Amino acid sequence: MTLEGKVALVTGSTSGIGLGIARSLARAGASIMMNGFGDADEIESLRSQLAEEFGVSVAFDGADVSRGEGVNRLVAATNDVLGDVDVLVNNAGIQFVAPIEEFPDDRWEAIIGLNLSAAFYSMKAVIPAMKTKGWGRIINVASAHGLVASPDKVAYVAAKHGIVGATKVAALELAHHGVTVNAICPGWVLTPLVERQLLDRAQQSGTEIVIEMERLLAEKQPMPKFTTPESIGAMVVFLCSNEAETITGAALSIDGGWTAQ
Ligand code: NAD
After folding, report:
1. What is each CA distance from 13 to 80, 99, 131, 216, in whole angstroms?
2. Residue 4 near residue 29 (C-beta atoms within 8 A)
3. What share of the chain is helix, strand, coil (3-state, %, to 5)?
């Protein structure tokens, strides 16, 4: 299956799951707008490697998508440099862990801004052109925490449940326009976001990271395995295919059985 001629915007694609998704979409032939933070030279090297390896156009814009203006600037830059967005992947996200009574207000605002509001602003910005073309794919990277809760993650769980709801609304509104909207709900994926949690846990318990890795998986997943960014990328590419044209409004788990319990 090919996405040649399609333009894909993947937020938070300088690392982890977003980078895996960008690679999968580039392999399928899409032009890619990368976004995210990090060292400028490392990002440029990722961008040029992706373009060279798969022979597609790859651009980068470091807009902060936790604010509406940043999202609008990113979508406008994508339209200017690559063309109208055909595939939107809302992936950028952050985490913070603390009980509600100690949860800092600014962490609540930041997580809701990036993990939830960014998807509202980006969908709002790309939907008109998708409707005009009569084709589009919107994929929101939610989480198992979009379906079930854990203690100490109030902002993250609220944002991820919210993005699942927004996905359903968008799917209903676009059902007659050739545009599908779905959420992907991964379990544990070993990325910097989870590595930071593992480091905190190892420091608190005084054990080694590898022990905390086993504990983390055992606490939530019947299957003691991390999902890979590549597997999530493959799921995104499938959702972009014609065969997936009636999958819409779904919250698709890829979580080692986490939410089956
Ligand atoms: P990560 O920390 O590896 O990557 C996050 C990406 O977002 C990076 O590219 C970072 O630069 C970018 N980013 C951060 N703040 C940004 C901002 N304000 N504007 C633009 N970009 C910004 O994390 P990850 O684990 O790859 O997470 C990606 C998504 O997957 C998140 O939405 C996360 O909630 C979700 N998720 C992760 C897991 C997991 O186990 N890792 C599980 C379920 C869902």
Report:
1. 19, 29, 25, 25
2. yes
3. 55, 15, 30
DSSP letters for 119-140? HHHHHHHHHHHHHHHT-EEEEE
**Among candidate residues 46, 72, 71, 70, the one with its CA nearest the CA of residue 60:** 46
Per-residue pLDDT, averaged over 16-45, amounts to 98
Dist. CA 62 → ligand 1 center (Å): 14
Please compute, for residue 21, the number of CA atoms within 13 A of its CA located in the half-sphere on the CB side. 33
Distance CA 129, CA 172 (A): 17
> Which pLDDT tens digit goes with each residue over 150-166?
999 999 999 999 999 99
Domains identified in the chain and CATH numbers: 7-187+228-253 (3.40.50.720), 189-226 (no CATH)
Known active-site residue 156: yes
How far does residue 36's CA lie from ligand 1's centre (Å)? Answer: 9
Task: For 245, list phi and psi in degrees, rounded to 5.
Answer: -65, -20
**Confidence at residue 1, expressed as pLDDT on a 0 to 100 scale:** 55
- Determine the Cα–Cα distance for residues 38 and 35; give it in Å rounded to an integer: 10
Of the candidates 54, 60, 121, 156, the residue annotated as catalytic is 156
CA distances in angstroms from 257 to 149, 219, 225, 235, listed in the order given: 15, 12, 10, 17
